[in-house]
């Protein structure tokens, strides 16, 4: 198994987003920070960053030392021995080769960072789906358990009425059929709940997650339009004069890179996890409303 132990602290000790349960926020952050797919994408991005740094060193001189075996009468020495030469090379003109290499490495790094974001988004969406499936199946199983208890009580009452010949035998047969159907639905819901929990634990690396439903009325507490506008890329905002993605990508590509990418990766992990988790709130509220209607 991968990921932290059950008692390990969350990688990002920040409060959960508005109306998002703490278990969902912790599971999303945990999966985005520890899943092997994300780790592989981050390792690839770090390798591309090293390639960019190496390409930038092409602008500077390269030093080397040579050891030569000199013999008597050679141009290096008057007697047998070893001659050491220090060589310093600096290209005077490379025909834009070094600049093109730097641009290529920078573009490759941007592609690698986008792969990291894509991997994080995919993992967080899978966590959100598994969490929602578990909560939905658990709520359905609870409702079916209550329904099964009521069916058993009603079936006992019908059985007593049949024994007293007050009700026909067909009522008892129908009651048993409906009770068996409820038992079958309960077993199916329990199986779906256990399957969703296994998926959730696999994504979080076995971290302790106790899923719970979001509070009612979450749509009123979430300023969806404001969140969407604040988190939209600058190239797609209405107040941005240049909406072309290419120019935005080029402006981002030529930004200086941090020496230590770890803080940036950690901040992006939490931001991506929060962003994808907000989608569960509205969906869960709709499911809860449907459950109330079915009951």
From TrEMBL:
UniProt superkingdom: Bacteria
Record's keyword terms, sorted: Cell outer membrane, Membrane, Transmembrane, Transmembrane beta strand, Transport
Keyword Lipoprotein: no
Source organism of the structure: Aurantiacibacter aquimixticola
Transmembrane intervals: none
InterPro entries noted in UniProt: OMP_efflux, TolC-like
Organism classification: Bacteria, Pseudomonadati, Pseudomonadota, Alphaproteobacteria, Sphingomonadales
Keyword Transport found: yes
Cellular component GO terms held in the UniProt record: cell outer membrane; efflux pump complex
Protein name: TolC family protein
Family under the similarity heading: Belongs to the outer membrane factor (OMF) (TC 1.B.17) family.
Gene Ontology terms, MF aspect: efflux transmembrane transporter activity; porin activity
UniProt subcellular location: Cell outer membrane
One Pfam entry name: OEP
Database matches in PANTHER family: OUTER MEMBRANE EFFLUX PROTEIN (PTHR30026:SF22), OUTER MEMBRANE PROTEIN TOLC (PTHR30026)
UniProt signal peptide: none
């Amino acid at each position: 198994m991968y990921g932290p132990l059950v008692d390990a602290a969350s990688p990002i000790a920040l409060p959960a987003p508005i109306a998002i349960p703490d278990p969902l926020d912790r599971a999303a952050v945990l999966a985005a920070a520890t899943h092997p797919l994300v780790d592989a994408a981050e390792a690839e991005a770090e390798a591309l960053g090293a390639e960019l740094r190496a390409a930038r060193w092409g602008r500077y001189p390269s030093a080397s030392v040579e050891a030569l075996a000199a013999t008597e009468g050679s141009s290096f020495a008057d007697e047998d021995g070893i001659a050491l030469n220090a060589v310093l090379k600096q290209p005077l003109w490379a025909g834009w080769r070094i600049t093109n290499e730097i641009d290529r490495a920078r573009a490759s790094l941007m592609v690698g960072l986008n792969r990291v974001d894509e991997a994080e988004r995919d993992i967080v969406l899978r966590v959100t789906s598994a969490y929602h499936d578990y909560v939905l199946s658990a709520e359905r199983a609870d409702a079916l358990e209550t329904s099964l208890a009521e069916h058993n009580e009603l079936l006992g009452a019908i059985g007593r009425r049949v024994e007293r010949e007050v009700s026909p035998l067909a009522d008892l047969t129908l009651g048993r059929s409906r009770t068996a159907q409820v038992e079958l639905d309960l077993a199916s819901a329990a199986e779906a709940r256990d399957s969703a929990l296994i998926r959730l634990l696999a994504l979080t690396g076995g971290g302790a997650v106790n899923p719970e439903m979001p509070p009612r009325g979450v749509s009123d507490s979430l300023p969806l339009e404001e969140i969407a506008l604040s988190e939209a890329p600058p190239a797609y905002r209405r107040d941005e004069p240049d909406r072309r993605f290419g120019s935005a990508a080029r402006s981002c590509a030529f930004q200086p890179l941090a020496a230590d990418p770890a803080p940036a990766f950690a901040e992006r992990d939490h931001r991506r996890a929060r962003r994808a988790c907000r989608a569960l709130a509205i969906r869960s509220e709709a499911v809860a409303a449907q459950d109330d209607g079915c009951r």
